[in-house]
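pinging the channel bc i need a second pair of eyes. not urgent but kinda urgent?? the chain im working w is below, pasted from the shared doc
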Amino acid sequence: MKILSWNVNGIRAAFKKGAFEWLFSQGFDVVCLQETKAHTEQLSGEILSPNGYVSSFHSAQRKGYSGVATFFRRNVPELQSGIGHDSYEGEGRLQRIDFGQWVLYNVYFPNGKASKERLQFKMGFYDKFLEKARGDVTAGLGVVVCGDFNTAHQEIDLARPKENEKTSGFLPEERQWMDQFVQAGFVDTFRLFCQEGGQYTWWDLKTRARERNVGWRIDYFFASESLRTHVKSASIFPEIQGSDHCPILLELDAPVEKNG
């Protein structure tokens, strides 16, 4: 099974830039998009069902903001939207897809740069999510988490770590949560295959940072330890345009056996 994840920074803008031509012609089994910034009534059939895919959207209450969407080549599996906590439900940040033996999370984690309050909001969301993911592992399920985490975990994950030590996205408390997530048994799948620096998924458009590859790796596929041996490849596509982020890919064995 091939699962593609991409923060498109506006699904309508990405469509107009031609991103869908590549995205839905590669045969990906599941496509997870973040920061869709749209309600379904604002979208054409070409966006809702590109090339025969079936979609499910979880949009923010506020139009033009946040939102996630998942596209399937076949019928939509059992799917739940929302993290299950009233404080966060209005922002359209999470979908949980149940494949029986394992679950896939499509998540757009909050950005903490705007204010101390938004950083607190982000850290609270992180904690609620970890609680939810741990619950699935305890229940004997394999877990895959993809999306924009809005944090670079290690110094190798951004071009200028020293200059950004006091910037949200690389703050000690954010990185410590990432450590906690790994310690809870979740594996950064890309690092199973690549230990080199210079591998990024987001670049600041205002400074034309992409041309110089001055970026951050803040988009991830994590898998629970039980799925480690089922991970066949993990890739980044920095050459694909259409957003300030680039797509990332995970290839898994399927079907995956249930633990226990």
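so The chain has one domain: 2-252. and The chain is about 20% helix and 25% strand. — does that match what u expected or am i reading it wrong
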